[in-house]
Amino acid sequence: MANVVIMPRQGQSVESCIITTWQKQVGDKVAIGDILFSYETDKSAFDEAAQVEGTLLALFAAEGDVVPCLDPVCVIGEEGEDISSLVPTGANSEEAAPAPEAAAAEEAAPIAEAVVTAAVSCDRVFISPRAKLLALKTGCDLSKVAPTGPHGRIIERDVNKALDAGFTTTTDKIEAFLRGEAVVVEEAAVVEEVAASPVAPAADDLRAYTEEPFSNVRKVIAKSMHASLSEMAQLTLNSSFDATALLEYRNKIKANGEAMGMGKITINDMVLYAVSRVLPNYPEINANVVDNTFRKFKHANVGMAVDTDRGLLVPVIFGAEKLTLSELSAKTKEAAGKAREGKLSPDEMSGGSFTVSNLGSMGVESFTPVINPPQTAILGVCCTTNRVKADGSVYPAMGLSLTFDHRAVDGAPAAKFLKELCVALENFELLLAK
After folding, report:
1. Residue 378 lies in a domain
2. I need a surface site. Which of 35, 41, 90, 187 has the fewest CB within 10 A?
3. In this predicted structure, what is the pLDDT of residue 131?
4. Which of 174, 196, 218 is the last residue of a domain?
């Protein structure tokens, strides 16, 4: 019996996912546990494993396609099985499940022969979002592209193949083709001649550059940051504290922590610990604003900004005020590791009440962090700099930058929060004993 594989829902806030790579193709044998395809949400990447064994009979989406959660993605069953009743509306089962031999032959066929096929059947164009964007940016002549995706869809690799052959045209003609308007069909022999002529490499140009579209993660970051600055009245307060005691305690942990069964505890862990103890005293700062309504949290759900290859991610440490320093440190390392590996679920990055962004390790002395909506504030942690006291002694000062939404938080309570946090960090061992 054939089984439909649907796009999983990774978190309550996720409505759709983008397929990045198909690990199996139509006609491939599938065993339980085999990876079928990889996909992304707006923040994380996942692999979908087969839950049944059989043969991959059909694909309903191509690489680069955005698929709504719970929609059919592919079918696994027995070879020759009738799956017409399982094909989603608008898809063609014969196109969705070509024989492996036919697919291989199409891949090996000369571009010239495929050109004629693509050009004469253009009343409706099936093309993935990535392929369309690439074609418009590069001027690829889509009428000369051989589609190899499911149900005759043009995908990104098809566009790249045509570009390698030198098939380019104007934007107007590309848009006309996408609208299904008639196009001029060139004879195969002419196309072969064009394809055989290598494109001369352009001379070095000091103005040369490359273009690439925003990744899915970058689009979300851009949208969130723009909304943050355009919809909030943001103000930043800068302060600093004497980090002597904090650094001394950190040195004690480095020297003796391992012998006492403690993991590696960082300065950032200690800052997060202090933040989690001070936050509950300021309900407007430990809050979200949603539709002009305060959502004041009962616990300190502290987000920590993590720099990854895919962009800035903010996993949340829930109930941080209930964790010991050692427990908090273990949680932060687990969360940071999952963020860098792309294994965070959306639920692990939502529901934060406050965020900490630490650029101190990069030598940043002061900056203006941007609030993570719908939170009302964010703390920026800076590096230490040597300062001189009135008596002439030198001490390490660590800078803190608090950005808050002035619509929700007044300047006085924000300043009090920052001051109390500085006092807590200057007396960290006393904070631990509290």
Report:
1. yes
2. 90
3. 78
4. 196
